[in-house]
Design a protein that fits this description.
alpha+beta; Heat Shock Protein 90; eight-stranded mixed beta sheet; four-stranded mixed beta sheet
Amino acid sequence: MTADVFGTAALRGAVLEAWRASPARLREDANTEEDHARGYYRDRVVVELAQNAADAAVRAGVPGRLLLRLGRDDAGAGSLVAANTGAPLDAAGVASLASMRASAKRDAAPTTVGRFGVGFAAVRAVADEVVVASTSGAVRFSLTATRAVLDEAAAAEAAHGRPELGGEVGRREGSLPALRLPWDAPDRPPAGYDTAVLLTLRDDAAVDAVRAQLADVGDALLLALPGLVEVVVEDDDAPPRRVADVASRWHVGRAEGELPLALLADRPVEERTARRWRVTWAVPRDGADVRPPGVVHAPTPTDEPLSLAALLVATLPLDPSRRHVASGPLTDAVLDHAAEAWAALLADLAAGGRDVLPLVPAGLPHGGVDGALRERATAALARTPLLRAAAGDALVAPACATLVRDLAEPAAVEALGAVLTGLVHVPPAGRAAARVLGVEERTLAEVVDGLPAGGDLDWAALYDALEPAAADARVRESLAALPVPLADGRTVRGARGTVVLGPDLADALAPATLAVLRAGGLRVVDPGAARPLLVRLGAGQPDAAALLAHPAVRAAVLAQADDDDLEHARAVTEAVLDLVATLPAVRDADGPVGPDAVGHAAAAWLGLLTLTAADGEPSPAHGLVLPGSAAAGLLDDRVLVPVAVAEVDRWGSAVLTAVGVRADLVVTRVPDVVTGVLGDDDPDEPAALAAASLDGWTEYVDHLADAAGAGLYVGDVDAVADLDAVAEDAWPEVLEHVASRPPLRAALLTPVRAEGSSLPLPSYGAWWLRTRVEPALPPVFALPGSHAPAGLLPPVPAAYAHLDRDVLRALGGVGALAELGPADWDEVLDRLGAPGARVPPAVAGAVWRAWASADVPGTLAPDVVVALAGPADAVVAEASAAVVADSPAWWQRRDLGGVVPVPPGAVDPALVAERLDLPRASELAAGTVDGTGESEPVPAEAAELLPGAPATWERHDDLRVDGAPVEWWVEGTGTEARVHAVHLAGLAAGLAAAAGAWYLRASVEALLTDPGRADAALDVLLG
């Protein structure tokens, strides 16, 4: 017999006495135990035993160690041993175990977990025989023993006429309150432990249930029960495992405090003294193979889901089932503290370098408690420095943070963060969480707009960081207003319109030159900030030639041309000349250069630079000549004066001639010429400046419009300049000079062409020389060796006979009438006299053959034409009353007007009519023969000579076509043709026309009228 150290007999006696006195009390206790065992705590035995172990360790002030061993006892029944270190079992504890909701820990340390005396009832879910063994003694709870005692008591009661207790026992069918009656026991805990709970498991289902609960034992248990530092799990069917050192796998944050008493007013009396609140948060460390359980612990697991990626243990009030959080002000207060503790933990993690955005709640809440907690946590996190500033190590609270929505490159965001306070870098995966926390999202364009446009900023570093992102067109668009520091100390917004000078060019230019150019409006980027990004964003990066063409440089030159301040004009000139001197084509030249050294566009206005003439007067560069040059000998010194020798000595001939000082005749290029249109309305534009320097340009573009039509695009026109400045006695030499210099020669000889027209138009130089040169040239003349009839075209003037054929052709010379253009024909036909004047047959034939040539350039449309006046006569006729004959038969129809014949076998008469802009005869008359003639056979000798002619013909005494008298006519062609004639000569013409052998008409006529001349006709055929 063992000593009853815990007074179990007295406890049993008191309980049995109560049951005898009130069998309903037995029923109440049985139902309560059953509810806990089979309902609220049906799957919590391991957790509740661990909770008791943790509390025992806390009470003893020692590290709690727990052994959970699942196996079989000596009888083969399943057993669970839960052994722990800590305070041993005492009488108060035994009394608590044997009571329902009367915990012995009510006045225990505030860090204990169990307080309400119900958790131990979980053992009844799996066992009917329970032993609690401690170093101080042991007690046993047994359903079998309880049933035996109750049966005995019921029998005694029945003997005294009180059957109620027995009736209640019988109705319970064995479901009795086994935990209300403790017995003293001899058992002891395993070595190394202070207390052990020994459970004889009811059946295999109970074994399986316990095994499943043991499998769930892990870090969450130790984190929820901080009194435990180790749990060892042993299972006969699995290797043993040890759970400890949770801090190596979890970041843990804890907070606690005391609640106002008013918050517990609606809680049960047993809970009202528990004013301490505690919160534990645990977050898996990076790389740790652990995961949060997904439910709230209070402190043991509840059924309240938790969406945060962490373990939460909080002293939340629970409902009687111990599975759900009870709503009310106490819960609200604890959730408030939990949210602040969560923010504090994440702040610590962020300070350690961890990205905490994945821990921010996103999406929909998983329940009422989760939603309430997330709302509070989000508000707390928004106020907490969590996000690392884009630049530096400081942390920024989300409510004070800004992220760039459309920029993901960390380096670029960091560079912007060095300028803007509160800017944070948030990777795309964290943007949703950042929005939840209220981080302000701004577009890159908005961020750029907010950048300060001044201050001592490291712009170069910012530009370098933004450069990779600028490969995206959308990023470049967002950077349009990026501040850009200039060399003059100003800062402008936007790279467009600024200039980034390469180091070579910046070093080559004098500081005074750059100062003048900047003063003229050239926005030069501060060399320290010059980066490729600015060029990508639209800044110019010109070489010397492109810089010369820059609008700001042009504006400075144009302004000095109109400036009365000669000192300022001289400063601009020297600055621009300094820039011109850096051009490779100028720098490397041994002598004078042409306008192409600076580009034709720049040459148009560089000629306005103010230089000093030999007489000491200021003069534009294009009004000066280089002393001793070809230009000085060819041009009138009253128009173009020599430049001062001092200018030549200082700058050299290459620089001066590049800006327009003449060393030779030069070619000026006028861009984008349109026939009949003077060009840009702005007189300072390059095209207008170039055109203004050319004598007679307005008349020239009007001439192009007259020749080809107005409004046609011609393109760039190269023109020989300064022709109006040629000395009067220098023309033969000038023309020979132009002919011998390739650029000048090309500008003179190359015709221009209007878009949509194949007609070659004269160059400006050719037009000018043909209209203004002295001695005057004929509008058109015959080249040496020309086949044009004598007297129809004048010969080349003697003063120009020494020029080569191509130059003469550009000046108006032609080698054949077919080369004449529309305007030339009017000149030539005017030489034949007024309408009605007789035209020699040879001249008329030459004209008609020219019009039928395959090489005629375009539409001629002369005012007068050469027309037939009779079988062998030609006259000058008004074109308005003329027609083109479709065939030789129509030559007889002079009733239709002046008839222009087309030599048979030449081009289609319709083409000639189109060239001359005349109707065809067949378009004015039907060509119908009036009446019929007498059919006769074609003479044999004619048939032999013309095998393609018809076999018969029709003789007429009076032949009329459309009522007009004719001598012959042909309807159709070839052997099927109908030939009509009034005599043999007409027959010969008709047969030759029908056979397509017009050239044989004279031979056929000879055969028909004089058969004795057959040998002569044969000679014609042979030869």
